[in-house]
Amino acid sequence: MKRFAYLLLSTALLALALPAIAQTVTADIAITVSTDLTGNVTAGQTGQISVILFNHGPEDTLPSASPGFSVSPIRRVDQGGQAGNSPEIELSVDPSSNTVCQGGMINPGAPFPGEFVFLVSLNNPLAANGSSTCVLNYRLNFGVGYRALDFTAQSGNSQDIDPDPGNNSVHLVFGIPPQPIPVFSHQSLLALFVLVLFLAWHHLTFRPT
């Protein structure tokens, strides 16, 4: 998995270095994200995220390229003020997606030593007017607060022309609110005060002689 992640990152860097004469296509890549989230989440919660990549055309993506998407930023778990080794949100490709996509978590290092990026690559090109679905499993390793992730799609070739880049990204938020501290109402405080007075009176009145 780690070897795949480094290979995928190297491929992405190589694509950025390709000369302008490299073959290009025009493909409108789009992404949608759906989850089982219904509101606030809890620490240790697990679930699934379904990601669909679309190619609205007019051309197929190149066979030599690898369409896919990235998920970032994923922070490291803060352990006593020190950056731990595990990510706050663990992601993995569900086995049901093995024939469609593969992915891996990488740590880019400087200048982002405290963050991970999850990279997913499709096994096949995206045909014009076609789509592919990747199912991700997640586990939450943070205790409180809100974490926002950006799912960003790409064709796999930095030279490609995307006529509508506005549909290439989806913002997803996981939120674990702080536990509220119980607050007594006026009625509860009055009842507690009466109970204390009763116990004090009872103690003084029925004290053994």
* Succession of helices and strands: HEEEEEEEEEEH
Share of helix, binned: 10-25%
Shape: elongated
Structural class: alpha+beta
The chain-level mean pLDDT equals 79
Unreliably modeled segments? 2-21
Rg, rounded, reads 26 Å
Mind describing the biggest β-sheet? 6 strands, antiparallel
Distance between the termini: 80 Å
Strand segment count: 10
Proportion of residues in β-strands: 35-45%
Q: Provide a count of the helices.
A: 2
Structure description:
There is one protein chain. It contains two helices and ten strands, in the order αββββββββββα. By secondary structure, it is α+β, with helices and mostly antiparallel strands. The strands form two sheets. Strands 3, 4, 6, 7, 9 and 10 form a six-stranded antiparallel β-sheet that branches. The chain has a four-stranded antiparallel β-sheet with strand order 1-2-8-5, with no helix packed on it. β3 and β4 (82-87) form a beta hairpin. The protein is elongated. It starts with a helix and ends with a helix.
Write a concise keyword list for the protein shown above.
209 residues, alpha+beta, six-stranded antiparallel β-sheet, elongated
Topology:
Blueprint: H1 2-16, E1 27-35, E2 46-58, E3 68-79, E4 82-87, E5 89-93, E6 101-106, E7 115-122, E8 130-140, E9 145-154, E10 169-176, H2 186-205
In short:
The protein is α+β, with helices and mostly antiparallel strands. 17% of the residues lie in helices and 42% in strands.
